[in-house]
From TrEMBL:
<protein>
    <submittedName>
        <fullName>DUF1684 domain-containing protein</fullName>
    </submittedName>
</protein>
<dbReference type="Pfam" id="PF07920">
    <property type="entry name" value="DUF1684"/>
</dbReference>
<dbReference type="InterPro" id="IPR012467">
    <property type="entry name" value="DUF1684"/>
</dbReference>
<feature type="compositionally biased region" description="Acidic residues">
    <location>
        <begin position="1"/>
        <end position="16"/>
    </location>
</feature>
<feature type="compositionally biased region" description="Basic and acidic residues">
    <location>
        <begin position="17"/>
        <end position="37"/>
    </location>
</feature>
<feature type="region of interest" description="Disordered">
    <location>
        <begin position="1"/>
        <end position="53"/>
    </location>
</feature>
Amino acid sequence: MNDSVDSTDPDTDATFDPDRWREELETKRAEKDEFFGDHPQSPVPPEDRDGFDGLDYFEPNPTYRVTATATVHDDPEVLLMDTTAGREMRYLRVATLSFALDRDDDELEDGTFELAAYQLESPNEEPLFVPFRDKTTGQQTYDGGRYMELAADRDLEDGDELVVDFNLAYTPFCAYSETFDCPLPPEENWLEVTIPAGERFE
């Protein structure tokens, strides 16, 4: 079960409804908790599911729902992404997403940031894969980083704007069981900023 967001989300800043957004986010979280606790394909080992009482999350915060501008790579480079099991997976770097973060606190972390978006090298219709680390990694969140997925309903073009909601950032399955092998965020996606949004893991 993956958390994804439609990257062509029509909810622009002008039409964004924070109450509806929060309600939909809480519904997604409740559905995921049910999946983790009961589903045969849950990453939580069967012997631990009776004691599972839900995932930990940061409080929903629309500050970390940002609009990113895409730079599309017409001839995407292959990137070998290390995995938790010591393998390498071949991904294509298909786009770079640039976005601004406006912080309300006193930390000097405002500014513009970039994340690379990837797809597996094999032809597929999978969403854009955006693994990342930030300053919560290894402290409030999983030390192997977190993931986001952006589902586009058409091919991206230069200058397209995408909604990137860090409140949907999730912990990879390998955090719960060694039977899973997960890609590790490459260094170009290590953000030098605190992103207290999405799933926690301590």
